[in-house]
Amino acid sequence: MFTPPPADPHKRPDLGPAPARDPEERAFLAAWLAHVEAGRIGTKLETPEHIRAATLANKRLVRGQRPLSER
């Protein structure tokens, strides 16, 4: 069984999530944000109409609704 070490009552906890304090993680996040700002990440391609129609039909089927073709 794991027993954590006792907490030091005089030590203040680190602020922020652990990845934000890790220098390698900060470098990764900075590079990722640079890609986002440059427009290489986050630009969404348009979904073809036949795929959107199939997705909508599947969602309606899962919800127990009648297909649009039966209305």
Quote the average pLDDT: 79
Q: How many β strands by DSSP? A: 0
Q: Radius of gyration, rounded?
A: 24 Å
Biggest pleated-sheet summary: none
Parts with pLDDT < 50 across at least 5 consecutive residues? none
Overall morphology: elongated
Give the helix tally: 3
Q: Approximately what portion of the residues adopt beta-strand conformation?
A: under 5%
The helix-and-strand class reads mainly alpha
The share of residues in helices is 40-55%
Separation of the first and last Cα atoms: 61 Å
The run of helices and strands is HHH
Word description of this protein:
The protein is an all-alpha fold and 71 residues long. The mean pLDDT is 79. The protein starts with 17 loop residues before the first helix and ends in an 8-residue tail after the last helix. The radius of gyration is 24 Å and the shape is elongated. It has three helices and no strands. It is 48% helix and 0% strand. 0% of the residues are buried.
Q: How are the SSEs ordered, and which strands pair?
A:
Blueprint: H1 18-21, H2 23-37, H3 49-63
Name the descriptors.
single chain, 71 residues, mainly alpha, 3 helices, 48% helix, 0% strand, elongated
Give the gist of this structure:
By secondary structure, the protein is mainly alpha-helical.
